[in-house]
Specification:
single chain, 7-stranded antiparallel beta sheet, 2 helices
Length: about 150
């Protein structure tokens, strides 16, 4: 009996830690969309969770929509790479996020973090770090430059 209780307790603690790491869920995924986690690459499908430290990669004619746990919605465009570097909720309207777009493009509908504290929701590119300034934002990278940007500064 004590061994069963110990196993159950270990599982509950693992589940709690795992849930804290998740920061969003895939609401839609079409085409070749992959998740890179701890060096392992797997297909990403609707209903899968993403966590801090993950990388989401979309292939040619592929996209994904990620619903973040603060209510933000992120659409990753074809041929894009997004690293989820930091994300934490610190109350109903507080927290912080750092997403790194290293290739391609994305559209963002702001959630609680970007709405209540825009300077705490940042998007890093190879060229700069941007904050959300509008309820909807969009960003596209073209080789060595930002070729389209709105709602970000």
């Amino acid at each position: 009996m004590p061994r069963i209780m110990l196993t159950l307790l270990a599982f509950l603690l693992w589940a709690e830690v795992s849930a804290q790491e998740n920061m969003g869920m895939i609401m839609a995924s079409r085409g070749d969309v992959r998740l890179v986690r701890a060096g392992n690459e797997v297909p990403l499908r609707q209903g899968d969770f993403v966590a801090v430290g993950d990388q989401v990669v979309s292939g040619v004619r592929s996209f994904s929509v990620i619903q973040l746990f603060d209510g933000a919605k992120l659409s990753l465009r074809p041929e894009s790479t997004l690293d989820i570097t930091e994300f934490a909720l610190e109350g109903a309207d507080d927290g912080y996020a750092l997403l790194e777009l290293t290739r391609g493009g994305m559209k963002l509908v702001a959630g609680n973090i970007a709405t209540s504290n825009p300077e705490r929701f940042r998007i890093k590119t190879p060229l700069s770090i941007l904050t959300v300034t509008e309820p909807e934002a969009s960003l596209s990278l073209c080789e060595e430059r930002i070729c389209e940007q709105s709602g970000l500064e």
